[in-house]
Amino acid sequence: MPNDALEKMLWAEADKLGWFINTVTEPVLAKEKQVVKNEKRQGVDNQPYGHTSYVIDRNLYPESHPYSWQVIGSLEDLQNATLQDVRNFYTRWYVPNNATLVVAGDFDTEQARAWVEKYFAEIPRGEEIASLEAPKPELAESPSLYHEDNFARSPRLTMTWPTVEQYHPDAYPLAVLAQLLTDGKSSPFQQVLVEEEQVAPGVSMYHSTSELAGSMQLGIQAYSGTDLDTVRASVDRAFARFEEEGVAADDLQRIKAGQETNFYQGLSSVLGKAFQLAQYNIFAGDPGYVNEDIRRIMEVDRGDVMRVYESYLKGRHYVATSFVPRGESELALAGAERAEVQEEEIVMGAEEGFDLSAEADYERTPSTFDRTVEPPYGEAPQTRVPEVWEEQLDNGMEVYGIASDELPLVQFTLRMKGGLLLDDPALPGVASLTAELMNKGTRDRTPAELEKAIDLLGASINVSAGRESFSITGTTLARNYGSTMDLVREMLLEPRWDSTEFELARQQTLNALVQQQANPGSVAGNAWNRLVYGEEHILSHNALGTEASVRAITLDDLKTHYRQKLSPSLARFHVAGDVERQDVLASLEGLDQGWQAREVTLPDYTVPEAPESSTVWFYDVPGAVQSQLRIGYPALAETHPDHYPATVMNYILGGGGFASRLTQELREGKGYTYGIGSGFGGSELRGPFTISTGVRSNVTYESAELIRQILADYPDTFSEEDLATTKSFLLKSNARAFETLGAKLGMLQDISAYGWPYDYVRQREEVVREMTVERIRELAERYVNPARMHWLVVGDADTQLERLQGLGYGEPVRLHELQESDR
Known about the structure:
Blueprint: H1 6-18, H2 26-45, H3 52-60, H4 75-80, H5 83-93, H6 109-120, E1 144-149, E2 156-162, H7 171-182, H8 188-196, E3 204-209, E4 214-221, H9 228-245, H10 249-265, H11 270-284, H12 290-298, H13 302-312, E5 319-325, E6 337-338, E7 389-392, E8 398-403, E9 409-417, H14 430-438, H15 447-456, E10 460-465, E11 469-477, H16 481-493, H17 499-516, H18 520-533, H19 547-552, H20 555-565, E12 571-577, H21 581-587, H22 589-594, E13 615-620, E14 626-637, H23 643-655, H24 661-669, E15 673-680, E16 686-696, H25 700-717, H26 720-732, H27 741-754, H28 760-769, H29 773-783, E17 790-795, H30 797-800, E18 813-814, H31 816-822
Parallel strand pairs: 1-5, 1-6, 8-12, 13-17, 13-18
Antiparallel strand pairs: 2-4, 2-5, 3-4, 7-8, 9-11, 9-12, 10-11, 14-16, 14-17, 15-16
């Protein structure tokens, strides 16, 4: 928060800790049940492989262990929770003697102490809370379970071993072991499963720890149609290779260098620092554990890694889960038993109702002073705009920098206009594959050698292509910045064009496109781009391409794109961190001299106008328990003079989280959704205004109709109070707008992309200060008219399609052709 709100926030947090429970009424509980059910539908029930953790934890931990059930609970648990259950939980656990308070940032220490004493001191202690004792998970066998997943498009094998709790000495080498086994070209799992036997496009392994226990989890999402017994045989061969080759010294060094960088990144924000202090205090028993934590990370040696492998993985029992597409149970591991997974049936009108409109009747919790009096804000914070420097190299590339020495890190982005925008509409995906292959080795380094060189510096470098840009991004320890940039120069100027890596990248891209078809959010995103931009616009395509185009792309297509579409004349380099201007310019000398500008013409596509009348479009996902909604139209470019004023207008509509009408009405008022928002996209090109949400399937029409009403009423109902809320947030939030290196890079990218002045934030503050209710209403009338929008629904057509005629926008149009072309 901005530091002028410290007292206000301490007052609010104390209220939650000690005084609010009487305000939780039956209607409030009923509403929150619906919200959490929607959270579960969105993150678990309506996602491919969403039930994996449920199946694993039920079989990894004893039935009495608190980790044997999911934090979010089951739908039955949620439905059966009573108001007394909630109050009992609050009284038992939500007490000062079970809490840690951290205040971090720019504040007066003595004043903060006084406020903490005032607001928290009279909150009574709860029952004494002893450290939990739970049985250690010990498997007497290796249970194997399978589940036919309605959303999966390929089989997924997960193997999970019980390990140790957080901050246990063995947790550190176990984290290293996970990376040694699966991260990078030199890892045995990448070599065996991905490159040699090609049973999967990738492999992931991570060590997860909590207060009472931990686990090592290996996840392999195989290619479509692959028998998971074949995959497990490959796993056995990968483990055998690891045992044969052991731990190479440089592999250990590269992983620890990366862990050091990640450690510092976790402390880059005030919130990150506060979180770690609390985390250390609660789980390590020492808020100053930071030095011990990094020491243990850096002291892991090869003997430690092999010891924990022998102790926790080799020959040890594990839980195996086979999640396969519906109707393909034959792909599961031989002998696997069907997992008990409860899949919800969505029944129209089955959800209980609630009424939040009535005045709640409750007795206030006593206090020594009137806690209904909200503390005032302190002195308004001043926005501190970072100091920017700028240069232009002889080859035309622009350079923008911000020096910041708080942490020994540097982040950078070299961004060129292009990406999908420069693809041939008949062959989308070339830019994406070009970028992917530029990560795979250089003229003098194999892919494995390049990867290892980057990792040994504690750096990350990634070449990627987006919808309108082609980028090289990186993070590195400050002491290794120069060496990291030497590798960037190699990757950009001397790509390897490895034909084996090209075929592997093509196969992985095809698999990614197949997986997107199983994810309702991805389906909605792809369909939305088609509607907003129209079939003739290149941005109507997925940046990865289509299955047909990816199969047709050749290595020569990538080389042609590289030669003709990547130029310093389109490039801007942005850098923020612990590095001086002269060192940045010195690091770019190789690019300046070796990368010659070429003429590149950006295509001139026409973005369609807003539709003259609204249409409902429906994309069928049979059996979906949640519907994805995308509502909007082609709106404004970022450079349009109304773009930022329209963004200000949108804050109360859907851009302000819990302050917004959409959230208040659909989540807080009705419990239809876990989250909803709206916003204006755009760059130098016109982008869409989009409302985005996922709602439970049986209120698809009700949700869309409520959104329509909110949009229609918004111009006439926007108030002076709404304006005050908007101004307060948009002005005060700038106090923390440029805290992290990532935020500083974002500022530089906006400045370079749109030609804005270094202090454009101050100009925006003036726009906010001068905003009036009348201006907001004018902008709302112009830019959020519900009668001139696309209304896209991705959900179960059998139960929801016909009901949407009630919106008054005619019969919904089914997107059959779109579905076929996506496949």
